[in-house]
Amino acid sequence: MKRVQKRLLLAAAITALLAGCDGGGVSVESKIVDNSVDNSVDNPDGGSTGENPCATIERTGVQGVYESGDCRYGADFVSASNPLTEDLYLPTLVEGGAHIFEGILFVGENHSSDVNLQAAGIAKGGDSVKLEIQAGATIAFKDNSALWL
């Protein structure tokens, strides 16, 4: 019986101790914290950076139109009557896209004689416009007679 009384007394002491504790300000409530990150990218023009990757003519501000992975350039960009008169860089497009010229890609001004070259300030052999095409870039034309260098 003494053994049972000791156990009851021990149980009562433990119960009193636990009842006297207020938890020490520790809350055991569970909380759900959503620390997920939205890494999705909305690129309506399809570019890797969200920007139009097509070339721009600086003097006019005309830029190619990016659609379905290709850059399309109209006559307002460059043509026989609107030749390329400034350096231009055509980058490789993601996913195998092409730079598609609707009209003629006429690079540089037409000078029919050395006198015209000298008047334009161009040394013989040329120091005119540079068309730089990045390795791997695809250039396409609607017509096979559309490239004039």
From TrEMBL:
PROSITE patterns: PROKAR_LIPOPROTEIN. The keyword Signal applies. Keywords: Signal. It comes from the Bacteria. Residues 1-19 form the signal peptide. This is Lipoprotein.
